Task: inverse folding
């Protein structure tokens, strides 16, 4: 046939074209374009930017990554912190972006070529079946504003055409809105999120989130592709049974979650109603799946979701010789005698690199031809620990703990042993150590002798003897001088044993707290659970001591509950420092002292300082964050049961801290006694307390909503005979009034929540409802948002109320708040509509409530 090119020549031309493409890079890419096409590759510092400017694609180096390792990735273009959401060549970095090219290959695929490599093969390719397209000129790659990189025919609209390939079908560690985590029923392929290898290394890690391989509609977390360590539970059509916070619709937060199951595939996807919302799910290197919101005001990512909540269930989450503990300030710590292998990674919260020995084992020294054996390796006894994985049972000779120890010492690869009738040996690295477990075992960890007490030279022991003798002599001199004050000093020393700041909870003696509080003489507050007194250490540290009343728990149970509450740490929760439990009525709790007292003092009592709207808004947001932490971030959900201004304390900068959380649990949940003896609590009770329904965290949401109204108005929600309004009189009446010197007044009873709800429904201005002390000085948008949130919180139906996590998002402006309906039960209680005065203030007649 005339003009035909032989097959061999065709192949040669293709190779020549490929070489030309790699070496010259084709035509330069126009900066800001969103497309890679034939003759328009990507190289060096060039990047694609999506049409809406939300995402960018180009060469990048991860923060903390190794030099000379470059990746092609997608990140957010319009936020200040570079945050990769997809990496193409995560396991095949290139050395120099200036000589590398992301380009359309002759076969129609998007491919990455390393200019420093002698191979003509790409280091990464989309590997799509693009053979039906006429080579590279018939295909383009477009970066969409969803963060999806799409390979599509050049003649089509990439955003609407069926893609030949798309990055949303090849998720890395991040799941973006609109993406799918799917199962292909034709091929059986399961697409999930896979963590990075480390914080600075996007290589394929060990942790993955994916659909259950068994076919059930749930997510599972897997380690190493096989070991399941957490599951969401089945999808009910509305939420997951084991993760109810992930629901089909979030109500006020504006996102929707959907499960699709058809003949071709099954998948989950989610979206946000507001396109400007920046949210991402990440399979973190810690082994937890996390949800992050970008907060523009703080220019940072805000963590709003993390599972599993207990980091200790993550396999190898603390790496080799790392010890996991829920109660620690950090999830992981190195075992004694070990130090972090990568301190920089540990500082970033990535513990998977684990720990290394601080001192080499004597056995290893001898085997490597070093010094002769001076002192044998020793064992550190670790009590109440979960034994690590992969222990080997030694059969035969080990009939005692001593035999088991000798067997371990005789093997240089043996790292630890345990004996409980059988001898267990662990070799090389130890993983999944956990301390502080309730029913742990005893493990003996092999260390160099120098790492254990008593392993010092004779010279050092002599120095210690001399120093000890000198210390005894100095002590005798000091004791003779201070003999008169020795009793007082001894007690002060014992009381000052509290280590404030290390996260521990100290057990005090009753007489120590008597001493701190000057025999409980300075009372600073009180309530249904008892009275609060001010105490002071000799170093001027001030604390608040609460004497609990009416407790019915036993000693062991009380200590267990206090220990649990002592581990709860959050910037908006009052910190428990210690306790006393000596039987009878000698049960006390020691808290940090809040110099600005409780919120009710600033709202309802006349003080020299008027709490500004800005301060009130931060109080509302801080309390919401504290309650959200109690409900969702603790190992067990803690329901406060008594949210009100009296239990919100303010520190020196007027930052709020929720107090008395968990006390309902300490008194055995005898709520009927609490309700009848606690003043003001009736105004904050959710309807389910009266109807007898099960009490959930939504009861706290209701109480919080009632408190929001009081933050707005600066007064109690129910005030009888205290709200006055002037009656404008005619001129003749005015003359009479001038003569008589009296002005007519009337009183009314107002129920503020219903006033706010109706005003919102009528699209009215809520600013006239603001506390008069503020003189209208408030952000109108924030005020309206608070009023809407409050009305949603006090809905009669438990399901209609938002969670505290959703409330936080709403107050931070991350989600739009829909118009709330007027709660029906408020209308019933009121019995008649509200009246409006000439000056637009609303009130109720005395028989209205």
Result:
């Amino acid at each position: 046939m005339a003009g035909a090119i032989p097959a061999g020549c065709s192949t040669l031309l293709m190779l020549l074209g490929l070489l030309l493409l790699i070496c010259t890079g084709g035509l330069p890419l126009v900066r800001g374009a969103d497309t890679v096409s034939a003759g328009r590759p990507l190289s060096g510092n060039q990047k694609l930017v999506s049409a809406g400017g939300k995402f960018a694609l180009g060469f990048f180096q991860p923060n903390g990554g190794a030099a000379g390792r470059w990746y092609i990735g997608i990140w957010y273009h319009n936020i200040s912190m570079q945050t990769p959401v997809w990496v193409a060549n995560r396991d095949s970095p290139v050395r120099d972006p200036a000589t590398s090219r992301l380009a359309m290959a002759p076969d129609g695929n998007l491919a990455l070529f390393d200019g420093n490599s002698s191979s003509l093969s790409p280091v990464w390719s989309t590997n799509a079946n693009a053979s039906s397209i006429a080579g590279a000129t018939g295909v383009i790659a477009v970066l969409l504003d969803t963060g999806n990189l799409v390979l599509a025919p050049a003649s089509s609209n990439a955003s609407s055409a069926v893609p030949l390939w798309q990055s949303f079908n090849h998720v890395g560690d991040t799941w973006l809105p609109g993406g799918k985590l799917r199962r292909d029923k034709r091929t059986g392929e399961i697409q999930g999120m896979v963590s990075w290898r480390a914080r600075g290394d996007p290589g394929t890690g060990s942790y993955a989130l994916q659909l259950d391989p068994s076919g059930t509609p749930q997510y599972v977390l897997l380690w190493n592709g096989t070991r399941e360590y957490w599951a969401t539970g089945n999808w009910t059509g509305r939420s997951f049974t084991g993760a109810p916070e992930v629901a089909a619709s979030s109500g006020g937060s504006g996102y929707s979650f959907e499960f699709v199951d058809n003949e071709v595939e099954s998948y989950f996807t989610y979206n946000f109603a507001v396109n400007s919302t920046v949210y991402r799910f990440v399979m973190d290197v810690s082994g937890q799946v996390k949800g992050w919101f970008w907060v523009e005001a703080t220019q940072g990512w805000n963590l709003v979701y993390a599972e599993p909540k207990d980091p200790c269930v993550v396999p190898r989450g603390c790496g080799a010789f790392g010890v996991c503990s829920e109660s620690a300030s950090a999830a992981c710590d190195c075992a004694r005698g070990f130090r972090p292998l990568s301190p920089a990674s540990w500082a970033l919260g990535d513990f998977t690199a684990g720990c290394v020995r601080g001192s080499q084992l004597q056995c290893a020294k001898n085997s490597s031809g070093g010094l002769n054996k001076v002192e044998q390796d020793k064992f550190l006894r670790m009590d109440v620990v979960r034994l690590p994985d992969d222990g080997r049972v030694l059969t035969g000779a080990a009939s005692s703990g001593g035999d088991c120890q000798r067997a371990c010492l005789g093997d240089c690869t043996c790292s630890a042993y345990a004996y409980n009738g059988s001898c267990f040996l662990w070799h090389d690295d130890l993983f999944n150590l956990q301390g502080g477990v309730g029913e742990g075992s005893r493990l003996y960890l092999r260390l160099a002798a120098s790492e254990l007490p008593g392993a010092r030279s004779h010279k050092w022991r002599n120095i210690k003897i001399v120093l000890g003798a000198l210390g005894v002599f100095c002590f005798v001199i000091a004791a003779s001088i201070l003999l008169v004050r020795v009793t007082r000093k001894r007690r002060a020393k014992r009381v000052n044993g509290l280590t404030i700041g290390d996260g521990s909870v100290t057990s005090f003696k009753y007489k120590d707290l008597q001493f701190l509080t000057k025999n409980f003489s300075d009372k600073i507050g009180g309530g249904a659970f008892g009275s609060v007194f001010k105490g002071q250490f000799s170093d001027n540290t001030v604390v608040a001591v609460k004497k609990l009343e009416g407790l019915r728990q036993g000693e062991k149970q009380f200590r267990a509950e206090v220990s649990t509450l002592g581990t709860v740490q959050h910037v908006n929760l009052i910190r428990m420092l210690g306790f006393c439990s000596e039987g009878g009525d000698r049960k006390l709790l020691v808290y940090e002292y809040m110099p600005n007292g409780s919120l009710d003092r600033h709202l309802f009592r006349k003080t020299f300082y008027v709490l500004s709207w800005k301060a009130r808004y931060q109080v509302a947001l801080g309390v919401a964050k504290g309650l959200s932490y109690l409900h969702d971030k603790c190992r067990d959900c803690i329901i406060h049961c008594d949210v009100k201004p009296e239990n919100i304390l303010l520190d020196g900068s007027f930052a709020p801290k929720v107090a008395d959380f968990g006390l309902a649990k300490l008194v055995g949940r005898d709520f009927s006694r609490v309700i009848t003896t606690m003043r003001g609590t009736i105004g904050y009770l959710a309807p389910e307390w009266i109807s007898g329904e099960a009490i959930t965290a939504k009861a706290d949401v209701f109480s919080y909503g009632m408190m929001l109204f009081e933050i707005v108005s600066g007064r109690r929600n129910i005030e009888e005979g205290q709200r006055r309004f002037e009656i404008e009189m005619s001129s003749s009446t005015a003359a009479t009034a001038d003569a008589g010197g009296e002005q007519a007044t009337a009183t009314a009873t107002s129920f503020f929540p219903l006033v706010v709800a109706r005003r919102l429904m009528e699209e009215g201005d809520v600013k006239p409802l603001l506390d008069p002390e503020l003189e209208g000085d408030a952000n109108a948008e924030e005020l309206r948002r608070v009023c809407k949130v409050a009305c949603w919180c006090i809905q009669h139906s438990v399901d209609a109320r938002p969670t505290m996590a959703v409330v936080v998002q709403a107050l931070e402006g991350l989600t739009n708040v829909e118009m709330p309906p007027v709660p029906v039960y408020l209308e019933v209680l009121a019995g008649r509509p509200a009246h409006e005065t000439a000056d637009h203030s609303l009130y109720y007649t005395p028989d209205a409530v």
